[in-house]
């Protein structure tokens, strides 16, 4: 039987894992997205992350009611691991290198605003 201290330990470990990911994610966004587009990209990221949350609660609840919680948790864990592995198949994710320190952003030239830092033209200093 799980007791309170075990739940507290698991919750603490979960929180550390989530925050470690969040620091890497936010840093990557700030390094890879132009400052002019960072607000829009962050908003789309949050909407995409939260939009289907209520749907997932409903689906998981219905499936767990029919099959039990154990298979649902097992499938969710395996699915998360599989999606992580699929993400590493993308060369840009697998071979990511941080941009050089001090790389300046080019001013927009009146055309479409490139959102990714890789789309920037280098500027002379």
Enumerate how many helices there are, as a single number: 5
Can you tell me the number of structural domains?
A: 2
How much helical structure, as a percent, in the residues? 55-70%
Per DSSP E runs of 2 or more residues, the count of β-strands stands at: 0
Low-pLDDT ranges: 104-109
How would a textbook summarize the main sheet? none
Tell me the series of helices and strands, N- to C-terminal. HHHHH
Question: How much strand content do the residues show?
Answer: under 5%
C-alpha end-to-end distance: 64 Å
Name the overall outline: elongated
**Mean residue pLDDT:** 82
User: Over the alpha carbons, how many angstroms does the gyration radius reach?
Assistant: 20 Å
Decide which structural class fits the backbone. mainly alpha
């Amino acid at each position: 039987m799980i007791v309170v201290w075990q739940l507290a330990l698991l919750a603490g470990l979960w929180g550390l894992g989530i925050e470690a990911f969040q620091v890497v994610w936010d840093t990557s966004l700030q390094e890879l997205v132009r400052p002019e587009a960072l607000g829009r990209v962050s908003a789309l990221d949050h909407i995409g992350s939260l939009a289907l949350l209520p749907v997932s609660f409903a689906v998981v609840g219905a499936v767990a009611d029919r099959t039990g919680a154990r298979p649902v948790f097992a499938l969710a864990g395996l699915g998360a691991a599989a999606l992580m592995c699929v993400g590493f198949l993308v060369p840009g994710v697998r071979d990511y290198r941080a941009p050089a320190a001090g790389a300046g952003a080019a001013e927009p030239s009146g055309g479409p605003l490139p959102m990714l830092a890789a789309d920037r033209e280098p500027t002379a200093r």
